[in-house]
Amino acid sequence: MRTVGVEEELLLVDPESGDPRALSAAVLARAEADEADRGVFEKELYGQMLEFATHPRTDMAELGAEIVRCRKEAARLAGEIGCAVAALAASPLPVSPTISMNRRYQWLADQYGIATREQLVCGMHVHVAVESDEEGVAVVDRIRPWLPVLLAISANSPFWQGEDTGYDSYRSRVWDRWPSAGPTELFGSPERYHRRVADMVATGVILDAKMAYFDVRLSERYPTVEIRVADVCLHAETAQLIATLARGLVETAAREWRAGREPVDHSVSLLRLAAWQAARAGLARELLHPVTLRPLPARSVVRALLDHVSDALASTGDLDRAREAVDGVLRGGGGARVQRELMERTGSLRKVVTECVRHTQG
């Protein structure tokens, strides 16, 4: 059974006003002082962000429980210095981000200018184990068309700098300002994959291979494929669902590869349209079906994803729980809908943030 690990980026906010607070260094210092937290939490580009990483898990219920524990521990550490954590993929309130300075982050600021200064967004990355680079590239090639559906399920960033953007996932639109971000063409082999990354680095436009910000890539650190499309999810249950579906996609793709089935050869330009539509619509309107790339109601496309991975989920005992979780997120509408409903009810983006602090731990 493939292991799965999750990385989540959380927003540090004032518990009363909801304003983002650049206190990650103080939170990390407290985490390092506690042996149980050492290595769990990491520095991010901005002082208003805090990242954590789970251990690799084979049992998805255990992974979900660890996500909850990490969120609660992040909240405890933040609370000790007078702030809170919110699983928001973008700050609803206006903010001038504070870059956490080191040589790497300074290079990003110098190289990309305003695009770096406007990257205060929080994502969720899912690492799924693969046996080799050959299997990993086969997976990367085969799961590309399904990734916009994961984005739509996770969508949790409707507000930006005090305004409703009209998007359910505006984070993904901001993230795509990086020149190396987004979907990729088919690679076909590990050699072509690594050659493409090396050629990108050789241009000087990106700093190193870590900046190959593909929607899905071979991990630089672990024997995994890293799926990088999701917003950080408001609810831990949704994060667990994204991780479950991600493992199902990887296992399904690996089985197709071993059976000699070729990947669907959608162009990057069409995959970009599918990602844009997912960011705009979330679960509220139509998505592009991953096989036909024609619009269908989001509910139908999410069900198509579940059908696509159902054999893989059944083999790990996750199918029934995934069906229940999909039903729940389709009823509730996801983080973007929750945020907009809070705004409609309270009339205050500050209250949206402070209520989402409670959702994050709930």
From TrEMBL:
Q: What is its EC number?
A: 6.3.2.2
Q: Which Gene3D superfamilies match?
A: 3.30.590.20
| Stored Pfam families | GCS2
What Gene Ontology molecular function terms does this protein carry? Answer: ligase activity
Recorded protein name is: Putative glutamate--cysteine ligase 2
Top EC class of this enzyme: ligase
Question: Which domain of life does this protein belong to?
Answer: Bacteria
